[in-house]
Amino acid sequence: MEDLKLGAVEEKFAELIWAHEPLSSRELAELCRGELNWKRPTTYTVLRKLCEKGIFQNVNGTVSSRISRGDFLAMRGERFVSESYGGSLPAFVAAFTSRNRLTAEEADAIQKLIDEARREG
């Protein structure tokens, strides 16, 4: 998937779908009317764009994700590390921790991930 960039409004829209899927396009339009103050054509236009990006699908009026929220965020994170840090996770972690202190819980969680990766690899 090439285009993982979503604007702030597209992100809110995507979160609504992920939180309520599967749902009918009519239900989605009603949800967007209440949550985003959108008219039906706006909902359908944004849905079409995100379907073209391959994130969602609208099959016979039923809207659902083609990519889960977790997978979408993971792919977006991978792309960020690749583009910004040459694919080097250690470089990203070094940059992040140079400005943000890790809590003991965060450090333990990261160590657990490292230990699991070593066992699997």
> Can you tell me the CATH superfamily of the largest domain?
Winged helix-like DNA-binding domain superfamily/Winged helix DNA-binding domain
Tell me the distance between the termini: 26 Å
**Alpha carbon gyration radius:** 18 Å
Q: Assign the CATH class of the largest domain.
A: Mainly Alpha
Strand content: 5-15%
State the gist of this model.
The chain has 121 residues and is mainly α. The protein has helices at residues 8-20, 25-36, 40-52, 69-85, 89-99, 104-120, and strands spanning 23-24, 56-59, 62-65. It has two domains: 8-69, Arc Repressor Mutant, subunit A (Orthogonal Bundle); 88-121.
Characterise this structure.
The chain has 121 residues and is mainly alpha-helical. It folds into two domains: 62 residues, Winged helix-like DNA-binding domain superfamily/Winged helix DNA-binding domain (Arc Repressor Mutant, subunit A, Orthogonal Bundle); 34 residues. It is built from six helices and three strands. A hairpin with a 2-residue loop joins strand 2 and strand 3. Helix 1 crosses helix 2. The two termini are 26 Å apart.
Could you give the topology of this structure?
Layout: H1 8-20, E1 23-24, H2 25-36, H3 40-52, E2 56-59, E3 62-65, H4 69-85, H5 89-99, H6 104-120
Antiparallel strand pairs: 1-3, 2-3
Using brief descriptors, characterize the structure shown.
121 residues; mainly alpha; Arc Repressor Mutant, subunit A; 2 domains; three-stranded antiparallel beta sheet
